[in-house]
Design a protein that fits this description.
There is one protein chain. By secondary structure, this protein is α+β, with helices and mostly antiparallel strands. The protein has a domain at about 25-35 and about 45-100. About 15% of the residues lie in helices and about 30% in strands. It has two helices and nine strands. It has helices at about 1-15, 25, and strands at about 30, 50-55, 55-60, 65, 70-75, 80, 85-90, 90-95, 100. The strands form four sheets. The chain has a three-stranded antiparallel sheet with strand order 1-8-7, with no helix packed on it. A hairpin with a 2-residue loop joins strand 7 (about 85-90) and strand 8.
């Protein structure tokens, strides 16, 4: 009986140390071809409890493919940093979108006014 418990504990400890991250989320893509400019997207009306993740170019099958923007479930206390291509030494790397903690000084519409001080935080033409 003791051997069975010990064996179960060893197997459980082994699996506990294995990360179960999705390979699509952690895979780094580095290419030499610059992505096309981002497309203009018409954003659907704001959804309560959701944050907009803008569309971006992905590298699939040896070419750039557009992935349309979408709403994702909001995480309180965090904001979404969108996917973006970064150039380093003539090579392009896709930095995947991710959640970042801290919304204290966030400016969603980029007008220079923090969301908490902005009467219209989703409109870059009005503060």
């Amino acid at each position: 009986m003791f051997k069975k418990i010990l064996l179960a504990a060893v197997i459980g400890a082994t699996f506990a140390s294995v990360p179960f991250a999705s390979s699509a989320q952690t895979r780094t893509i580095i290419i030499r071809e610059a992505p096309p400019p981002p497309r203009d997207e018409t954003r659907p009306p704001q959804r309560r409890g959701s944050e907009w993740a803008p569309g971006h170019w992905e590298w699939r099958g040896g070419k750039h493919v557009w992935v349309a923007g979408r709403y994702i479930r909001e995480r309180r206390g965090s904001h979404w940093v969108p996917d973006q291509w970064v150039e380093r030494n003539g090579r392009w790397m896709l930095v995947r979108g991710h959640w970042e903690r801290g919304m204290r000084n966030r400016d969603r519409d980029g007008d220079g006014v923090r969301n908490r001080d902005d009467a219209r935080p989703n409109n870059p033409n009005r503060s």
